Automatic annotation (TrEMBL):
Lineage: Bacteria, Bacillati, Bacillota, Bacilli, Bacillales
Gene Ontology terms, MF aspect: metallodipeptidase activity
Name recorded for this polypeptide: Dipeptidase
PROSITE patterns: RENAL_DIPEPTIDASE_2
Recorded superkingdom: Bacteria
Any Pfam family matching the protein: Peptidase_M19
């Protein structure tokens, strides 16, 4: 089955260690590799620009990762830049043979409010943006910022400019107030690219039932993530825990809004059985043992395909 994955952090790893070879390495430092995507039959992989602490939060840092995306990821044979609904169909539609790479930005810090940088990244393929990572920045507070404030005035205008450009808004990592401010302001449905259900695992990065219901009611998309401590607080997480979160979102009415966002390369501990994209077939088998095939197809790529073809210009 063809797979869509809404979040990984391979770009910041490649930025940190220029010796890593995305096209060739497998089983090494990178979780997401060309070989791994082929092994997992991943048709669409989102690649996040994420500027870590210790690296200057500047447009240059974000643009350097965009350059890595073009120079390394897109230069691999059979990789296609996903910018439009037609691109999504080419990588997830019937008979698709190419693999798609979608450029996203995790945290607007590095833009420093510079709209030219946003427009330039859009020209380089940026099609999804998370306003902040865990901390506060000029646009919004993150979920780990004790102040818990929502969108700033600048953040509001960033959401509006993203929507005008055709950049989807990702609400993962936002403070609760930031989530609700964004939900109220946004004219397009939102994505939570990598988050789970807080009522099953009480990590603040997970979404409350009210947030999940709101995301679903507005036609949004929720990428269930494989971060082990977002799945299970008490013991090592396994594929069964992924299924518990899927089941819970279904119980909240979200069966047709579920996708996956692994967070591979953004984690250093793993869910047992899910160490890289090549393990997606094992997840598919586990889902198929419990749910009807059309639903499983939807979760693995159909819902992401529908959402992205509907909402990418
Ligand atoms: Zn993240």
């Amino acid at each position: 089955m063809r797979i869509a994955d809404l979040h990984c952090d391979a770009l910041s790893k490649l930025d940190r260690d220029p010796k890593l070879d995305w096209a060739e390495s497998s089983g090494g430092e990178l979780d997401v590799t060309a070989e791994g995507l082929a092994g997992g039959n991943v048709g669409l992989q989102a690649f996040a620009i994420w500027v870590p602490a210790g690296t200057p939060k500047t447009p240059e840092s974000a643009l350097r990762q965009a350059a890595i995306f073009h120079d390394k990821i897109l230069s691999a044979p059979g990789m296609r830049l996903v910018q439009s609904g037609a691109d999504v169909e080419a990588v997830l539609g019937p008979g698709a043979s190419e693999r798609g790479a979608l450029l996203t930005l995790e945290g607007a810090d590095a833009l420093r409010g510079e709209r030219w940088a946003l427009r330039l990244l859009h020209r380089l393929g940026l099609r999804m943006l998370g306003l902040t990572w865990n901390e506060a920045n000029w646009a919004c507070d993150g979920i780990m910022e004790p102040r818990g404030a929502g969108l700033t005035k600048e953040g509001r205008s960033l959401v509006a400019e993203c929507e005008a450009l055709g950049i989807l808004i990702d609400v993962s990592h936002l403070s609760e107030k930031g989530f609700w401010d964004t939900a109220e302001l946004a004219r397009r449905p939102l994505i939570a690219s990598h988050a789970n259900a807080r009522s099953l695992c009480p990590h603040p990065r997970n979404l409350t039932d009210d947030q999940i219901r709101a995301l679903v009611a507005a036609g949004g998309l929720m990428g269930i993530t494989f971060v082990p401590f977002f799945l299970q607080a008490l013991r090592p997480a396994g594929i069964d825990d992924v299924l518990r979160h899927v089941e819970h979102v279904c119980a909240l009415g979200g069966a047709n809004h579920i996708a996956f966002g692994s967070d591979f390369d953004g984690i250093d501990t793993y869910t047992v059985g899910l160490a890289g994209p090549a393990d997606y077939p094992a997840l598919a088998d586990a889902l198929l043992s419990r749910y009807p095939e059309p639903l499983v197809r939807g979760w693995l790529s159909g819902h992401a395909r529908r959402f992205l073809t509907d909402h990418l210009k």
